[in-house]
Specification:
The protein is of the alpha/beta class and 394 residues long. The protein is built from ten helices and 14 strands.
Length: 394
């Protein structure tokens, strides 16, 4: 993006200057038609952009660029002015290896079986020339009651509407919507999307990773049966298995937090699949995530250390993590250095996703600038290739 414009559309209607197509003599009809078609394909994302292929001689090798990644908030990606600033900050901060971007399912599949990956391609086009990389988080859970995380075509009996409203535990006020992944038709459409994404981006040298949001379902406003809850997590694991198959040369991850009762089995199967363990929050003192009482299921943070060096570990620092060390706000305000040390030492992070939150990102950039290049490109995080991968390629 130069001068705030993502690409040249061929014609400047504001001053009447002809673009490429308008400048062709009208008697060259065939040439005009061909260029119109090609332009339409390029502008809609149907025509694949030229991409740098990953140098993967071993079919089982995975692109591996651990370290710190900048995570713009969802609203920022559609604001060209903010994103131009994000790219400048990224280029000026060598410790940041790339971006983690949230992308919503309806944007990627506006009609059933019709895919539009333009948003991802545009970000990759900005990052690749600067050797920065992209990690995608598929948004499958919304935190606004009016926002559905599924395409509109799922508003049918086959998909049961595709999503269910939930509230925070202990309240009945709608907080957002989550995926009805217990429905096999919803699962199958998500797998189809992931396969298409894999065809397009697994071989891209600067497409570093792709993952799914937190395991916490929220409190459904309409009760969900125990069997459907079990199906929810069984199907989530099957989606992760499909993701590893679709992205054999790319890091895939799952954010895990709750429910604690299912974590031992769920995380154990993630390990078998080869899915990275991540989390939506770095709450240093949170009672639930650190939970450890005799004969009770342990909190999510206890599963990181045993998996260090086995699968990738990918915690995320969200806006609320800058504000307090506990989810309920009863802790204290941590420093950026404390968040870094906790993710590095307790969670053994290979990757950290740092949310670009207003009022906090200048402190993050300042801290990143102070990290020593002597600690390697991962800037102090664990750079070891996980055992679950046949090999890793830089």
């Amino acid at each position: 993006m130069k001068g705030g414009k993502m690409y040249d559309d061929g014609q400047d209607a504001s001053n009447g200057r002809p673009g490429v197509i308008a400048a062709i003599p009208r008697h060259h009809t065939a040439m005009r038609i061909l260029l119109v078609v090609l332009c339409a394909m390029a502008c809609t994302g149907i025509w694949p952009v030229k991409t740098a292929a990953a140098d993967v001689s071993d079919p089982g090798a995975v692109k591996w660029h651990p370290g710190h990644y900048y995570a713009p908030m969802s609203f920022m990606r559609t604001n060209p002015k903010i994103m131009a600033q994000v790219y400048r900050e990224l280029q000026a901060t060598p410790a940041l290896r790339g971006l983690q971007m949230r992308v919503e399912w309806p944007e990627l599949e506006p009609e059933e079986g019709q895919y539009d990956f333009t948003a991802i391609e545009r970000v990759l086009a900005e990052l690749a020339p600067h050797n920065k990389r992209l990690i995608v988080l598929l948004e499958l859970k919304s935190f606004k009651p009016q926002v559905l995380p599924v395409p509109f075509y799922m508003a049918s009996e086959t998909y049961e509407g595709g999503a269910f409203p939930f509230s925070s535990y202990g309240t009945d006020a709608p907080r957002g919507n989550n995926l009805k992944l217990w429905n096999p038709a919803v699962r199958d459409r998500l797998v189809a999307l992931i396969r298409e994404l894999g065809k397009r981006f697994n071989g891209h040298a600067h497409f570093e990773g792709i993952g799914l949001p937190e395991t916490a379902m929220g409190q459904p406003l309409v009760p969900v049966s125990k069997r459907d809850v079990e199906r929810q997590y069984d199907n989530l694991l099957s989606v992760q298995q499909a993701m590893r198959a679709a992205f054999p040369n790319t890091m895939t991850y799952q954010f895990v937090n709750y429910p604690r009762e299912m974590l031992p089995s769920f995380v154990g199967q993630m390990r078998t699949i080869g899915t990275a363990l991540g989390g939506p929050d770095v709450f240093i003192d949170d009672p639930g995530l650190n939970f450890d009482r005799p004969n009770k299921p342990k909190g999510a943070y206890h599963f990181y250390a045993p998996l260090s060096g086995v699968v990738p570990l990918t915690p995320s620092v969200m806006q609320s993590n800058y504000e307090n060390t506990q989810h309920d706000g009863r802790g204290r305000v941590p420093t950026i250095a404390e968040l870094f040390a906790f993710a590095r030492d307790r969670l053994r992070a290979n990757y950290i996703f740092w949310t670009r939150a207003p009022n906090y990102y200048p402190k993050v950039l300042e801290f990143m600038s102070g990290l020593s290049a002597a600690d390697g490109q991962a800037r102090g995080l664990n750079p070891t290739c996980p055992k679950v991968y046949a090999s890793c390629v830089e």
